[in-house]
Design goal:
The chain is an alpha+beta fold. The protein contains two helices and three strands, in the order βαββα. It starts with a strand and ends in a 13-residue tail after the last helix.
Length: 81
């Protein structure tokens, strides 16, 4: 399957984010820090479409929960306002 690095702008390092995704949301993404890329997650995109879509939905829920809990965006992150 294909692999990609997903860059994100939250104020949380990739290992704790990957652990939270796995433990609380059943989403397995590798922390970018394992490959020398902090604030990235390695995502595999070779899964069946319905399984992949479900994982993306749970990933989005995790990000929304983190934002709601007060995790902000990094100052170096450019976001659309």
């Amino acid at each position: 399957g294909l692999l990609a690095l997903l860059h994100y702008g939250l104020e949380i390092q990739s290992l704790p984010l990957a652990n939270r995704l796995a433990e609380e949301y059943s989403v397995m993404l590798a922390p970018g820090s394992a490959f020398g890329y902090e604030h990235y997650l390695r995502i595999g995109i070779g899964q069946h479409p319905e399984v992949f879509a479900g994982g993306l939905e749970r990933f989005a829920a995790c990000i929304a929960d983190l934002r709601a809990s007060g995790i902000g965006l990094r100052s170096d992150w450019v976001s659309e306002s």
